């Protein structure tokens, strides 16, 4: 039957005190091993594992502090309780700085062993709680790693699924003859791609909670330029984005807004056959607030205020701005169209 008692190594050159210690601590439920010198104590600690080590300070040759230092150099060192004289505060402080878990002042009588047993119990409980805390933290780290890996896989699959849906839309568009239907499907495809870009960024990033908007908008603007710029109606898109990180749902909302504003500018700002530039600017304001600006140098908003097209893009912009708790406005002083989406702190 294995011994389940806490094991203690007591290092002291005083033979009489060692025997008293052994009897007292054995009665109190500890398995005791004795060492008559610091060097022998270190060898015992190297040979086997103890739950706790107690060291007397005054020993010839290698004193308690030197023994404590040698124990700390071992691959694994259990908690150490340092035993000092009644006027040895300086020594006790030095022992604590050297790595001792606690210290106790040596006195004469049975009260000393009661106090020693209490100190041992508290020290072992502290070690137990620390080990439990480290174990829980390690389990949490492993769990977080698994969840992040799972989330990356989910984002990868979502991105692939959105790419597949986009391909289906393209195939459907190719079968249609009606130009209006083909345009509507192309815009739907672009909206799908704007959302898919977020999930591709999350899959390839170490941070699965936030999207780097400068990287995301760079890819999105390239796609938009490839979509809307044609040899007969060339469109140049310019991006200036600060390195702002947004949560996934915020990034999707902002991406949809950029997609709609840029698409509107490419379609309506400049006449067919005329080259035009559209600028996208994302800047950080105070705190966590940011401002998105999408502007062109085209014809401006219709004077009668009528919405061009189906109005779906305008509805999407308002809905996405609402999800961001953002305000959208148009700068009347700008010659073309300057749309501003602003969040508060």
Written overview of the protein:
With 345 residues, the protein is an alpha/beta fold. Among the domains are: 7-106, 3-Layer(aba) Sandwich (Rossmann fold), CATH 3.40.50.2300; 210-345, Heat Shock Protein 90 (2-Layer Sandwich). The chain is built from nine helices and twelve strands. The model has no long low-confidence stretch (mean pLDDT 87).
**pLDDT under 50 segments (min length 5)?**
none
The overall pLDDT average reads 87
- Write out the CATH superfamily name of the domain at 210-345: Histidine kinase-like ATPase, C-terminal domain
Q: Approximately how much beta-strand content do the residues carry?
A: 15-25%
Structural key phrases:
Rossmann fold; 345 residues; rod-shaped; Heat Shock Protein 90; five-stranded mixed beta sheet; five-stranded parallel beta sheet; alpha/beta
What's this, in brief?
By secondary structure, the protein is an alpha/beta fold.
Layout of strands and helices, then pairs:
Layout: E1 7-11, H1 15-27, E2 31-35, H2 38-47, E3 52-56, H3 64-72, E4 80-84, H4 89-97, E5 102-105, H5 110-175, H6 179-204, E6 210-212, H7 213-228, E7 235-241, E8 245-247, H8 248-268, E9 276-284, E10 290-296, H9 312-323, E11 326-330, E12 338-343
Parallel strand pairs: 1-2, 1-3, 3-4, 4-5, 7-9
Antiparallel strand pairs: 6-8, 9-10, 10-12, 11-12
Helix pairs in contact: 2-3, 5-6, 6-7, 6-8, 7-8, 8-9
């Amino acid at each position: 039957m294995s011994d389940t008692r806490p094991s203690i190594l007591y290092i002291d050159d005083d033979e009489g005190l060692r025997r008293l210690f052994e009897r007292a601590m054995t009665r109190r439920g500890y398995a005791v091993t004795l060492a008559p010198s610091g060097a022998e104590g270190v060898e015992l600690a190297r040979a086997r594992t103890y739950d706790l080590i107690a060291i007397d300070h005054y020993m010839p040759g290698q004193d308690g502090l030197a023994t404590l230092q040698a124990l700390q150099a071992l691959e694994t060192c259990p908690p150490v309780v340092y035993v000092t004289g009644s006027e040895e505060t300086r020594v006790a402080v030095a022992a604590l700085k050297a790595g001792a878990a606690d210290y106790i002042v040596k006195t004469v009588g049975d009260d000393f062993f009661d106090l020693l047993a209490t100190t041992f119990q508290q020290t072992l409980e502290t070690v137990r709680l620390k080990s439990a805390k480290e174990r829980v933290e390690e389990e949490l780290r492993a769990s977080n790693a698994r969840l992040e890996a799972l989330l990356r896989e989910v984002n990868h699959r979502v991105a692939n699924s959105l790419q597949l849906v986009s391909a289906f839309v393209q195939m459907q568009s190719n079968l249609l003859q009606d130009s209006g239907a083909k345009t509507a499907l192309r815009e739907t495809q672009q909206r799908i791609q704007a959302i898919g870009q977020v999930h591709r960024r999350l899959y390839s990033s170490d941070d699965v909670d936030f999207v780097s908007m400068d990287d995301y908008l760079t890819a999105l603007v390239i796609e938009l330029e490839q979509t809307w710029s044609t040899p007969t109606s060339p469109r140049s898109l310019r991006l200036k984005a600060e390195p702002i990180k947004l949560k996934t749902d915020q990034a999707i909302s902002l991406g949809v807004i950029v997609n709609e504003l840029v698409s509107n500018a490419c379609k309506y700002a400049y006449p067919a056959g005329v080259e035009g530039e559209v600028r996208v600017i994302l800047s950080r304001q105070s705190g966590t607030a940011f401002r998105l600006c999408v502007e062109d140098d085209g014809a401006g908003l219709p004077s009668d205020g009528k919405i061009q097209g189906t109005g779906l893009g305008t509805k999407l912009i308002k809905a996405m701005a609402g999800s961001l708790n953002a305000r959208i406005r148009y700068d009347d002083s700008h010659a073309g169209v300057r749309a501003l989406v602003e969040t508060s702190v």
